[in-house]
Amino acid sequence: MTANVKKTRIQSIDVLRGFALLGLLGMNIISFSMPNIAYYNPTVVMADAPLNMPIFSLMYVMADQKFMGIFSLLFGASTLLILQSSKKASISEIKLHFSRNFWLIIIGFLHGLLLWEGDVLLIYGLCALVLYFLKDFKPAILFFAGLFLFLTPVAYNLVMGWLVLHLDQSSTIWLQNYWSPPLHVLTQDIRLFQGDYMNQLNYRIEGSEQQYTDNDGYAFHGLGQLVDFFGRSIGMMLIGMAAFQKGVIGDLKPSIFYLNMCLLGFAIGIPLAILGLVTFHHYDFEANYSLFLGRIPNHFATLFIVTGYVGAITLWCRTKTLRWLQNSLAAVGKMALTNYVAQTVIAGFVFYGFGLGLYGQVNRLELLLIMLAIWSLQIVGSVIWLRCYIYGPVEWIWRSLSYGRVAKIQR
Fold first, then answer.
1. Which residue of 60, 139, 229, 377 is surrounded by the most CB atoms within 10 Å?
2. Whole-prediction pTM value?
C-alpha cells in the first residue's frame, strides 16, 4: 500500500508539472513571436486578425500567470522533497541545495542571454536561495508568509494606480508609448528578430535605445516588474512548501478535499479573471489603468485558478481515465527543464531570423496551431527519451554539476 501511495504521489506531481510546462507555452509563444507588449496588450499587433480578441481573452482568463503559478508552487514543494531525499541518502542538504540552485542560476542566465530574454530560471534560482532558510517553519507560517509576498504586487499597483495620475508629461508619454508603441518601434523590433542572431544577442546585452530613459514612468514600471516577478514567484513557492508539508501536493488528502479545491478555485478565480478582462475593455486598454490597477483582479484570480488546477489534476490522477495522457504528461514533467529550454530553441527556429523568420507574421489563431505542433513534438519526444534514459539531457547536466560527478543517464 505504501509503495502505491508513493508511486501515485510522484505521478501526480509529474503530471502537474508536465501540464504546467505545456500550458506555459500558450503564453510564452506570444513573446517568442511578437513584440513583447503583445503579451499584455492585444490591440497593438494584428488586432484585426481572426479571433484575436477571443483567443487573447481565453488565454488571459485560464493561462496568464496561472501556469507559472503552478510551476512556482511545485518548485517550492520539490525543494522540500529534494532536501528530504538528501537526508535519507546522507548527503549534505545545504551543500546540495546551494549547488543545485547556483547552477540553475547559471543555466537561467545563459538561457536568458543567449536564447530568450523572458527566462524565469534565473528568478527561480535566486528565490531558492532564500527557501533553504525557511524550510523548517511550520506550514501555517509558510502559507501566510507566501500569501503576503504573493500579494505585494497588489499593494504596489494600488499605490502606483494613484501616483501615475500625478506623473509629469514625459513620464506619462513614456508609459503610453511602452503600452502602445509607435509603428516605427514595432517595425524596428520585428526587423531585429527577423534578422541576424548577433544583433539579437547585442540587444539582450545592451538593450534598445527606447528601453532606457530617465523618468518616473520607466522607473515605476521597471520596479513594478521586479516586485511582480519576485513576489509572485517566491510567494507561490512558500505556499507550495506549506502545501507539500500538509500533503496537499502529493495526493495525500481525501478526494473530497481535492474536489472542493477544484470547484471553489474555479468558481472564484474564473469570475475574478473575467472581471479583470471586462475592466480592460471598459477602460479601452488605456495605459495608466492597464499597467497598474488593471493587473489586480487577475492577480487574485491566479491564486484561485491555480488551486482549481491542482485539485482537478490530482483528482484525475486517481482515476484510470486517459491514463496514456497522464503518463505522457508525466514524461514531459520529468523532463521539465529540458522541455522548457527546448521550447525556446524550437520557437527561436520557427520565429527568429536564423530559422524560418516568422516573427511578427503569425496571428494568435495560427500560433495555436504552432503551439499544438510543439506540444505533440515534446510529448512524443519525452516519452521516447525516457524509455532509454533516466533524465532529460539538461536535467542530466544540472544533476552532474550539482553533485560534482557525472550522473548515470542510461537505463
1. 60
2. 0.94
Alpha carbon distance 387, 170 (integer Å) = 58
Q: Is the residue at 85 inside a domain?
A: yes
Torsion of CA 341, 345, 346, 352, to 10 degrees: 140
Long-range contacts, stretch 338-341, CB < 8 angstroms, 24+ apart: 338/392, 338/393, 338/394, 338/395, 339/21, 339/378, 339/382, 339/392, 340/21, 340/24, 340/121, 341/107, 341/111, 341/115, 341/394
Domain membership of residue 162 (yes or no) is yes
Residues belonging to the chain:
411
Residue 215 counted as domain residue: yes
DSSP letters, 51-89, are THHHHHHHHHHHTTTHHHHHHHHHHHHHHHHHHHHHHHT
| pLDDT at residue 206 in the model | 82
Contact 306, 70 (CB under 8 A): yes
Helices and strands counted in the chain (H then E): 18, 0
Cα–Cα distances (Å) from 384 to 311, 361, 391, 409, in that order, read: 29, 33, 12, 14
31 within 8 A of 63, measured Cβ to Cβ = no
Closest by Cα among 307, 275, 270 to 62: 270
Percent of the chain that is helix, strand, coil (3-state, to 5): 75, 0, 20
Q: In this structure, are residues 16 and 74 in contact, taking their beta carbons and an 8 Å threshold?
A: yes
What pLDDT was estimated at residue 320? Answer: 87
Quick one: average pLDDT of 223-247?
Answer: 96
Query: What contacts 209, CB < 8 A, 6 or more positions away?
Result: none
C-alpha cell at 169: 508629461
- Eight-state DSSP code of residue 135: T
**Integer Rg of the chain from CA:** 21
| Mean pLDDT, rounded, of the chain | 93
Domains in the chain, number:
1
Task: Report DSSP letters for 24-53, one per residue.
Answer: HHHHHHHHHHS-GGGGT-TTSSSTTSTTHH
- Interacting residues of 113 by C-beta distance below 8 A, sequence separation 6+: 201, 204, 205
Residues 191, 201: Cα–Cα separation, whole Å: 14
pLDDT digits (tens, 9 = 90+) for 100-109: 999 999 999 9
Whether 41 has a pLDDT exceeding 50, the answer reads yes
Q: What percent of the chain has pLDDT over 70?
A: 96
Q: Is residue 191 scored above 90 in pLDDT?
A: yes
Range of the domain at 182: 2-403
